[in-house]
Amino acid sequence: RGPKIDENVAREIINHRSLRHPNIIRFKEVVLTPTHIAIAMEYAAGGELFERICSAGRFSEDEARYFFQQLISGVSYCHAMQICHRDLKLENTLLDGSPAPRLKICDFGYSKSSLLHS
């Protein structure tokens, strides 16, 4: 951490902390030290959706629909809150550890809020 917080980190903190939705990884707190900044978030025991697809090879139509509906729900909520993620990809979608995993959108470093003009 230098004299000023990186623009993407500041944007992630400002935009992510305002979001509360079951398909968005929960923002918990920011910890600042003289040399580092840490963002604490909900733990997603299921890992990345990307890894799940790689290990499965492919999804059935039902499984793909199950995850896609959750993704759209999270994105729709972000847009309703005037926040655009701008970096949606498999690596930025995590899964909780439940037997029927819930998709969680993460990494709001490139997000933009029309309310804050960030």
TrEMBL record:
EC nos: 2.7.11.1
GO cellular component: nucleus
GO biological process, one term: response to osmotic stress
Domain of life: Eukaryota
InterPro entries, alphabetized: Kinase-like_dom_sf (IPR011009), Prot_kinase_dom (IPR000719), Ser/Thr_kinase_AS (IPR008271)
Catalysed conversion reaction: L-seryl-[protein] + ATP = O-phospho-L-seryl-[protein] + ADP + H(+); L-threonyl-[protein] + ATP = O-phospho-L-threonyl-[protein] + ADP + H(+)
Keyword list, A-Z: ATP-binding, Kinase, Nucleotide-binding, Serine/threonine-protein kinase, Transferase
GO molecular function: ATP binding; protein serine/threonine kinase activity
Occurrences of domain Protein kinase (ranges): 1-118
Membrane-crossing residue ranges in chain numbering: none
Record carries keyword Transferase: yes
Name listed for the protein in its UniProt record: non-specific serine/threonine protein kinase
Lineage of the organism: Eukaryota, Viridiplantae, Streptophyta, Embryophyta, Tracheophyta
